[in-house]
Amino acid sequence: MFKKSYIKFLPLCLAIILIAISYILDFSHDHLLKIHFIDVGYGDAIFIEMPDKTNLLIDSGHEKYAKKVMSYLSSRLQLSRSKKINTVILTHPHKDHFGNLDKIVEKFLVDKFYYNSDERMPHSGYFEIINIVREIIKPEILKRGDKLTFSSGDVELRILEPEEIAGMTNDSTIVAWLKYGETSILISSDIQMIRQDKIIRDFDFIKDSDFVQIPHHGGYVSQEFASFFNTKNFVMSAGTEYGKPFEEEVSKFKGKIYRTDRMGTIVIKSDGRKMWVADE
Fold first, then answer.
1. Cα–Cα distances in Å, from 128 out to 43, 97, 132, 166, 168?
2. Which of 41, 43, 241, 253 is the most exposed place for a label (fewest CB within 10 A)?
3. CA Rg, the chain, in Å?
4. Residue 25 in 3-state DSSP?
5. Which of 59, 29, 30, 17 is nearest to 278 (CA)?
6. Do residues 117 and 22 share a domain?
7. Are residues 25 and 50 in the same domain?
8. Is the same domain home to 119 and 171?
9. Domain of 56?
10. Do 188 and 213 form a contact (C-beta atoms < 8 A)?
11. Cα–Cα distance between 81 and 67 in angstroms, integer?
């Protein structure tokens, strides 16, 4: 009798166990977007962890920060139990942005590599590094109007610039707007004043970005650009090279400014409803 009752309730017990396991797994999966502005002095290395634990790396910092960048990436990948960087984007061919790409593609599996294809006036060492990249993975070109999606479409990266390869190298840098749920951040790279004013004319929706990256490590910025955004949260990857950041330029941004030259690596998190700077 007991055996028959046990068999009768076995499917129900299994169903309850499966629901509990599913709940635990879902609870442990925090569904957070994490944007790491790695402290690489004057330069950019932005590692973005998606809610589904896939990832994106935008630029890689100067080669003198190789040990820090490689160690940081390794530790983050180990935590997420991943062995690969899903997507890499090089915004433009300056050494403080491409400096460690060769080491990255040699050490980690990389699924996709994007760049702006501007090879007119690159910094020294660019061709040596990009040729190593090309031996491992075929670069694809990003331009205005392109869109990349991550985390089963929950995260969207819209490319705002370059519309064309023209002017100085920084004028053709990749500028991107990252959106997750109701939250977003503008990643401005080294965009110059003419292009700063152009994107705020052409893309009014970026006005409501939760965070804005201050362009070019605290370089020259137009007053129109600095005062355009509704947000009071700004982030800047900066060092002391080249006399930057220019404090008179940085002061044009009214609000809380999170800076790697004073705070070290900065991690911004989003749950799709709000975006904040984390304590890690």
1. 19, 15, 7, 23, 21
2. 241
3. 21
4. helix
5. 30
6. no
7. no
8. yes
9. 31-277
10. yes
11. 21
For the chain, what is the domain count? 2
Measured from the Cβ of residue 243, the count of other Cβ atoms closer than 10 Å reads: 8
Of the given ranges (23-37, 180-194, 232-246, 251-265), which has the lowest mean pLDDT?
Answer: 23-37
Same domain, 183 and 48: yes
**Segment holding 22, helix H or strand E:** helix 2-28
Asked if 216 and 254 sit in the same domain, the reply is: yes
Contact 126, 93 (CB under 8 A): yes
Q: Dig out the tokens for 23 from the structure.
A: 């709940």
List the strands of the sheet with 211-213, edge to edge: 147-150, 155-161, 175-180, 183-187, 211-213, 233-236, 256-259
Please state, in angstroms and rounded to a whole number, the distance separating the CA atoms of residues 261 and 110: 29
CB-based contact 50:22 (threshold 8 Å)? no
Give pLDDT tens digits for 205-233. Answer: 999 999 999 999 999 999 999 999 999 99
Q: Give the separation between CA 254 and CA 246, rounded to whole angstroms.
A: 15
pLDDT tens per residue, range 13-24? 454 554 444 444
